[in-house]
Amino acid sequence: MRDTHAATEDAAADDRRTFLRAIGAAATVPALVGTAVGDASSESDAPEPIRSSDEIVPITHGVAVGDVTATTAVVWARAEREATIHVAYAPIESADNAGYERVGVDGETDYTGRVRLTELASGTEYRYFVWAMPAAAGPMSKRPLDIDELTADAMPDAIEHGTFLTAPSATEERSVTFAWSGDTWGYGDDPIDPPFPGLRSIAEREPDFFLYHGDTIYADAQTPAGKITENTPLDEALEIYRDKYKEMRDPPASVAERTNLRELLESTSVYTVWDDHEVINNFAGPIEPLMPEGRRAFREYWPLDRDEDAAPGDSNRFYDSFRWGKHVELFLIDTRQYRDPNVEFDSKTLLGREQREWLKDALTDSDATWKVLASPAPLGYPSDSWATPADRTGYETELLDLVEHVQTEEIANLVVVAGDVHKSVVGAFDPDDDGEFEFVEAVAGPLGAPSGPADEQYAPLNPTTFFAKGEYANFGTVEVAESGEAITIGIYDEFGDEQFTKEVQATDIDPGPTPTDSIESSFDDGTDGWLVSQNGGSDQPAYYETGGNPGGHIGDEENQGGIAWYYQAPFSYLGDRESFYGGTLSFDLRQEQPDQQFDAEPIEGGDVLLAGDGTQLVYEFRDPERVPGEEWTSFEVPMTASVPWIDLTSQEPLATEERFRDVLADLTVLRIRGEYRSGDDASYLDNVVLSK
């Protein structure tokens, strides 16, 4: 595929010849010479050319190409001082179609610049060259480089170069390969210092592109560049953020000779996603005062092409999709900039309304065989994002909304690739328990941060785990066959040794719903994805293999005083359940210490709670004899407005049939009360059945 940075004398000489051919071809095209990006001045306005290579301004931190499409690409570089950055580029196979662009840089962007290349050929390997000249005529100087005066010996030091591949067009049947990982340098009390072998191993695999999947720096961890804390003054934060990106490309000599990042970025293109450590640990964008400075530095130091009109420091859209031929569309999402803080469970958003609707529409409209969703944090593995049952800060409602959209729109062949959790995990999910996977998810990383042991995947999504391993540095790969019939997911350690591979056939993923007359949880094989919900969050219940009615069952033994808490149904019970109107919900409950029923007000949730379509309905057992005892007690709840269901979200005290049907048609929450005593309590649940 693409050549890596030339290391031998012969390769360097070949690069020089290619460079001279590219510049020579570009120089014959009047429209490409003497016109800077955004500058409409005529060629006659250009100052005299510089006659000495000594006047070339150094490129300080390598080069990179990113956000590649079939016809465009963005080249990134940083000059030592105010300068004009020049870019010459041409297909590797022929310099006849060479191009030339340039852009001025100054201190406003820390001397970083991005040059957008256009009218490229699809599915084509390109080589590009970058150099900088003094900005004697201002930041948009048009001073050309005098090729005749540039000696062959000076060229390797004065001019940076790299390679990239443009995406195939949306109609081309081409194979696609990429690698992904993240989490590099500076985490915890004992950070792992560079170099990072995983970056070198990825470059050696020569992927079509690299997905740098979050925590590309650890701004809030101590490294030579400093450390961001919540007390860092805003006027100091930007420089620390910028220095973090610089040291990731060129670490201090006292730490390491290299990180291997520059070499990787020279060998292929990159799509870069941010996560929390680009700003500060677990931040929520709208309320984080440091976010604008961290966002600005992220945009300055990566070749992004997702909001070209954004000025330095302004809001930037980081989410977008990129098509790679007939079979692959890559969807990048931003789970930081728009998220709500960890507030009441039912009201939080991770993506923000605009991004959420864009993602749903984009997935629906895509005709690519494989839809690859790049989420910084996993959908199906505990983190601080989509679902975090351990610390009660999950965004499960929005996760449900997305999963339900995948089901109802029958979005086929969805694969999620993620990072953040410092483990490698591959699994598939069947949340509606119809025997067909709604999506496959692969998690990879870290590249440089410490890794702990792997945990279980998120039970409410009904996971099947294919592979889980922690406590090592790793990266993932995706390969889509030219025919599009299969996708292969690979996990490799930092030295490139295979840990796991799995091939998934396109027909393996069929999200079409299967009609059912009942949904059951007998708990004979596990928790069936049920959670315990209280205090605005959720947690895993205890599981018992025996002692149920009969067989296994679940329970909760937390001492929560007089707070009402509930067993929360998994996704298999939720979604469009209007056909269950007129049916029943039955279950068995048992208490460890029976007592009079704790008389919760309806606003606490009653004995059974249903929520959907902005409405909350609760049902209460009014009979004083109908309370759980030390032995199993069976309960049956009619799913109809013909019995008293209290409508908490309407001025009408009791639910109407219309309101009840609306809730069932968009059922997002089903909870069964577990707390029946004031004071410490323990209760147990078995044999939940929702039937028509």
Description:
This protein has three domains: 59-165, Purple acid phosphatase-like, N-terminal (Immunoglobulin-like), CATH 2.60.40; 167-505, Purple Acid Phosphatase, chain A, domain 2; 518-691, Jelly Rolls, CATH 2.60.120. It is 14% helix and 28% strand. It has nine helices and 33 strands. The strands form six sheets. A seven-stranded mixed beta sheet has the order 11-12-13-14-16-15-17, covered by helices on one side. A hairpin with a 3-residue loop joins strand 11 (320-324) and strand 12 (328-332). The longest helix has 19 residues, at 9-27. The protein starts with 8 loop residues before the first helix and ends with a strand. The model is unreliable at 1-9, 25-51, 137-154 and 597-603 (pLDDT under 50).
Q: Say what the CATH topology of the largest domain is.
A: Purple Acid Phosphatase, chain A, domain 2
What Rg is obtained from the alpha carbons, in whole angstroms? Answer: 29 Å
Number of β-strand runs? 33
Strand order of the largest sheet: 11-12-13-14-16-15-17
Main sheet overview: 7 strands, mixed
CATH class of the largest domain: Alpha Beta
Domain Laminin IV type A: 525-692
Pfam family, one: Laminin_B
Protein name: Alkaline phosphatase
Keywords: Disulfide bond, Glycoprotein, Repeat, Signal
